[in-house]
Amino acid sequence: MNETPHKGLSMIVMTIFVSLALLIYIGADYSENRIKNRANQNNLADVWWERSFILVCPLH
Length: 60
What we know:
Layout: H1 6-40, H2 48-56
Helix pairs in contact: 1-2
């Protein structure tokens, strides 16, 4: 009971990093699909968060 909570805190930090990585990846995929759909409809108006997701995601 008097141990330092290294394992628990490290698991919380890892969970936060994995959650952020998944959020960025899924957000970039969703944004890419929205941009393609608008391009097919000849509507080229961009939304700032879509380009931001694509810029931040290293896989897109």
